Amino acid sequence: MVNPTSYCCVKTAVPILRFYLDQAADHRAHLRLSLPSIRSLIAAVSLESEHGWDKDIEVLVFLHWLAHAASYKVVSQAFDMPISSVRGIVHKVSKAVIGILRRAVGAGFAHLAGSPAFSRVVGAIDGCHIRMKPPANNSHCYYNRKLFHSMQLQAITDHHGCPSGSPQWGN
């Protein structure tokens, strides 16, 4: 069996890691978060290591993937790590971040309602009809149950009224 730490060492020659280790750099340009926000996220997530990568590296891989909408292969090359590791890290950190958001939103709804029964709520949903002049063809498709032409708008928000899924921890 291969020792996982034999390929899980931080390679400081990798440009993205040199950039992260530079305390004076503006991390928002590459990772969409400030350095204090990145550190806050690293502290907030709880990750069990399955393959030897540090939590800092796993969060950086996730943020790089998210910030650049990059493929696993591109992130793999940027961090000089196996594609399978990148895939596992992205899935694991995504699950951890979603868990944080769910707990925060649930706690917010429980506080608003004054009842712990709302702690598992993940969002509020509502909709409305926006009156419109229908197109000449298929106007019947826009005729609603309220007996006028409209398009329906539907929104999901968190306990602050912000769009669901908006990060609350940084810039």
Query: Number of folding domains?
Result: 2
Radius of gyration using CA atoms only: 22 Å
Enumerate how many helices there are, as a single number. 6
Percent helix: 40-55%
What fraction strand?
Answer: 5-15%
Low-confidence stretches: none
Counting helices, strands and paired strands, the structural category is mainly alpha
Mean pLDDT: 85
Distance between the termini: 43 Å
How many strands appear in the DSSP assignment?
2
How would you sum up the global shape? elongated
Strand line-up in the sheet with most strands: 1-2
Characterize the biggest β-sheet: 2 strands, antiparallel
Element-by-element helix/strand order: HHHHHHEE
Give the helices and strands, then pairings:
Blueprint: H1 15-21, H2 28-31, H3 35-44, H4 55-68, H5 72-79, H6 83-113, E1 124-131, E2 150-157
Antiparallel strand pairs: 1-2
Helix pairs in contact: 3-4, 4-6, 5-6
Summarize the structure.
This is Nuclease HARBI1. By secondary structure, the protein is mainly α.
Written account of the structure:
It is a single chain. This protein has 2 domains: 4-113, no CATH class; 123-157, no CATH class. The relative contact order is 0.11. The protein has 171 residues and is mainly alpha-helical. 43% of the residues lie in helices and 9% in strands. It has 6 helices and 2 strands; from the N terminus they run ααααααββ. It is elongated and about 65 Å long.
